[in-house]
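User: Reviewer 2 asked us to show a designed sequence for the structure in our supplementary figure. I'm pasting the structure tokens here. Could you produce the per-position amino acids so we can include them in the response letter?
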């Protein structure tokens, strides 16, 4: 251990207290030993340091910071250098604002378009997500701040996220849900990781030794610290034994007492505690030193311009009939849509940023060479119909040559704490666009949305620019693209299906009661659509430009064995054959026809963004790596390569393959993990209705029973109190449900209500600053289960015992100063 001298001087009480936060965002200092406190803050796309009282949901205002585009947006850039540059800006702002650990980026896989937090996540593809996450991490950490990739792992839904068990087979776990984290750790050198709320195969992520020890630390060589998501700790002692260092936010001293008792009883060893303390000390001391003599300001204007550049390079041109874009100088346009006046530029929840300044289309359009005939909101973003507003918009449209229609998902459509129930845009926006299309056929749509949406109305538009959630400078980026100042180069980091029913986990998402069964296995996003032969509206990797590119002269760069291994790669020449400078994303996909081990048709294994002037050509080299040909073999319990002749496909999207190459790769084992006859759904890709027997064959075990029993436990969520035997508990459930419904109908989600609604009883002992401990939680659960008086006695007695023990503990800590 690195800090043996300090640890030897620490009491067990100090060690135990050190492994839990002292407030919403800070770690606990120990003055007598010179151990300082460090500050954590949300910040996937902008620093959210709260100046006053802290809360993890973003309800209280934070200090001004640059709001960059969200991860779902930036992933569309497919540009690692851009991600690193943005990371550097985030790290610089964090340092200036006194933040030591930036809680991001989020790189959970977009299993379903319905996940309410998809706007914070990069992609449906783990390779792209991992590469972009690693670029953020490198940039942030270059400024002396630690990045904290999250949420580790298999966090795919917001509904009951703290009381949900993700049931997933080992191969899918490794290949789809962990690969992105692996890249962030190995290539980005992430120094912190945030553990997820949910269970993974029956064990909470924060106390899951398979995740935190076997894979993260032993296999990947992670040498940093693991921080719980806020309130995600279940059994603190088991978390420490598994490799978790810091329980956040502030569980009071109940968790510390729990840790001491676990050492005394032999449940865990003091060595476990010492190792976690040593790792946390290393982080605290390093970050404290990094923060000395650092500037307390940053260049707000320069970062705003960077935010505009990131937005411009991440916007995706989906459609451009007859070259209607870019707009000609002096074009006579009507600007219609509420989002042109009040942009939807970020999501809701813990990532909410208090911007340094905010551009709007209506506020800056005068800086561009356009003839604006008028501007109208056209619709209420709340969804209510307004005939007068609609008429104003239609009259404007009739008098313009081109209509610029700004629309998308409103604030209550996607947020932390809630999942979507459909993929549709509010109907009043669609009704208006259909009528606009009748009034003026030259309709250009500008979409703001953090997730994939259904687009049955896309044929009304001559052009569609998808901006996702593009940050505080997004308006300028949009107008730069529309007027041709910037040539769009974004490519979709997720598929846009025709309808929700086409998604692979439609019948499995979200969880049914306590278990979420990942029956679709590997077939997420384009992996499913291609295997199934199911057409999508816009494929993964797709995006148009104002110019055109040609591909030629592709060749395999041989590996050491003159076939192709991890030291080989591909080389291809790309030429800009148009008359406009622009950037292209060269994408490399790998497949194995006739494979004995079931797999997708092809998978992304490399990419490179290249800028080319009109008429210019460049040779692009994309190396193979240790992930190019591998799969996880559940029989050998390690990564293997199946021998065969692989197809290397080079293209502009998953559906637009320009060149095909082949190379033979030697295998690493003859042991096959599966019996083809027992897994017909997975070999065919027809995974919409996988039978129990087949899913159990894939899992290698019996499917766990996720039904709630007659007795609620401390790990059940408040929203399950409709099962409660206590009439009072059922009344509380009805009241919570009524509050949630009222907020939903208002058009603005109540994040506090949503959090409580999905929160398990145990979280009261983790989120109340020590006011409630586990004994009191047990009493509350007894009351909910119909034992009112015995439960109440436990709560009342527990309150006084907890208060007394906390005071005694605090006194003990103060006496050691």
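Assistant: Here is a per-position design you can include in the supplement:
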């Amino acid at each position: 251990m690195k800090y043996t001298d300090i640890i030897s001087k620490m009491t067990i009480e100090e060690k135990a207290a050190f492994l839990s936060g002292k407030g919403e965002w800070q770690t606990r200092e120990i003055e007598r030993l010179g151990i300082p406190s460090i500050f954590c803050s949300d910040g996937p796309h902008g620093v959210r340091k709260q100046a006053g009282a802290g809360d993890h949901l973003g309800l209280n205002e934070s200090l001004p910071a640059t709001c960059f585009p969200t991860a779902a947006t930036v992933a569309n850039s497919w540009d690692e250098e851009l991600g690193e540059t943005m990371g550097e800006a985030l790290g610089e702002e964090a340092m200036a604002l006194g933040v030591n650990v930036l809680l991001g980026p989020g790189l959970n896989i977009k299993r379903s378009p319905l996940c309410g937090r998809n706007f914070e996540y990069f992609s449906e593809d783990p390779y792209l997500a991992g590469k972009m996450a690693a670029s953020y991490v490198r940039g942030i950490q270059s400024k002396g701040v630690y990045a904290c990739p999250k949420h580790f792992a298999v966090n795919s839904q917001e509904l009951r996220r703290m009381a949900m068990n993700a049931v997933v087979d080992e191969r899918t776990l490794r290949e789809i849900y962990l690969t992105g984290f692996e890249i962030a750790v190995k290539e980005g050198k992430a120094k912190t990781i945030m553990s997820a709320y949910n269970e993974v195969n029956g064990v909470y992520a924060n106390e899951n030794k398979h995740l935190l020890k076997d894979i993260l630390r032993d296999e990947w060589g992670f040498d940093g610290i693991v921080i719980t998501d806020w309130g995600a700790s279940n059994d603190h002692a088991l978390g420490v034994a598994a490799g978790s260092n810091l329980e956040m936010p502030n569980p009071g001293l109940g968790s510390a007492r729990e840790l001491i008792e676990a050492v005394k009883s032999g449940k865990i060893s003091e060595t476990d505690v010492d190792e976690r303390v040593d790792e946390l000390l290393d982080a605290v001391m390093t970050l404290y030193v990094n923060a000395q003599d650092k500037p307390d300001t940053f260049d707000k204007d320069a970062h705003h311009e960077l935010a505009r550049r990131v937005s411009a390079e991440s916007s995706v041109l989906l459609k451009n009939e007859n070259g209607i874009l870019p707009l000609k100088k002096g074009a006579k346009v009507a600007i219609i849509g509420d989002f042109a006046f009040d942009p939807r530029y970020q999501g809701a929840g813990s990532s909410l940023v208090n911007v340094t300044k905010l551009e709007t289309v209506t506020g800056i359009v005068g800086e561009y060479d356009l003839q604006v005939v008028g501007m109208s909101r056209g619709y209420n973003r709340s969804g209510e119909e307004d005939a007068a507003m609609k008429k104003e918009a239609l009259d404007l449209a009739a008098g313009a040559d081109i209509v610029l229609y700004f629309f998308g998902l409103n604030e209550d459509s996607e947020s932390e704490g809630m999942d979507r129930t459909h993929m549709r845009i509010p109907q009043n926006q669609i009704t208006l666009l259909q009528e606009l299309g009748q009034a003026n056929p030259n309709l250009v749509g500008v979409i703001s949305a953090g997730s994939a949406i259904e687009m049955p109305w896309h044929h009304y538009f001559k052009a569609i620019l998808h901006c996702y959630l593009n940050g505080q400078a997004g308006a300028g980026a949009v107008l730069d693209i529309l007027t041709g100042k910037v040539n769009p180069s974004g490519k979709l980091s997720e598929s846009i299906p025709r309808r929700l029913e086409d998604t692979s986990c439609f019948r499995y998402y979200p969880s049914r009661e306590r278990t979420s069964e990942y029956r679709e296995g590997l077939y997420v996003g384009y992996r499913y659509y291609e295997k199934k032969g199911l057409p999508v509206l816009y494929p993964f990797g797709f995006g148009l430009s104002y110019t055109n590119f040609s591909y030629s002269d592709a060749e395999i760069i041989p590996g050491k064995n003159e076939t192709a291994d991890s030291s080989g790669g591909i080389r291809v020449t790309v030429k800009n054959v148009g008359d406009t400078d622009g950037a292209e994303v060269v994408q490399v996909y790998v497949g194995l026809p006739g494979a004995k081990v079931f797999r997708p048709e092809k998978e992304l294994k490399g990419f490179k963004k290249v800028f080319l002037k009109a008429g210019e050509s460049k040779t692009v080299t994309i190396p193979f790596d240790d992930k190019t040909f591998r799969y996880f073999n559940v029989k050998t319990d390690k990564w293997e390569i199946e021998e065969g002749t692989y197809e290397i496909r080079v293209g502009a999207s998953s559906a637009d393959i320009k060149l095909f190459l082949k190379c033979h790769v030697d295998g690493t084992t003859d042991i096959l993990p599966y019996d083809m006859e027992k897994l017909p759904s997975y070999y065919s890709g027809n995974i919409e209705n996988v039978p129990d027997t087949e899913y159990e064959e894939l899992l290698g075990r019996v499917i766990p029973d996720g039904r709630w029993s007659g007795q609620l436990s401390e790990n059940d969520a408040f929203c399950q109190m409709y099962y409660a035997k206590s009439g009072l508990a059922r009344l509380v459930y009805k009241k919570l449900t009524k509050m949630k419904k009222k907020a939903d109908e208002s058009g603005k989600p109540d994040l506090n209500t949503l959090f409580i609604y999905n929160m398990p009883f145990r979280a009261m002992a983790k989120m109340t600053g020590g006011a409630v401990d586990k004994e009191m939680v047990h009493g509350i659960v007894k009351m909910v289960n119909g034992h009112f008086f015995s439960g109440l006695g436990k709560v009342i007695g527990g309150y006084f015992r907890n208060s007394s023990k906390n005071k005694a503990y605090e006194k003990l800590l103060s006496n050691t100063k």
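For the response letter, you might also mention the following. The CA atoms of residues 173 and 775 lie 35 Å apart. The two ends are 24 Å apart (CA to CA).
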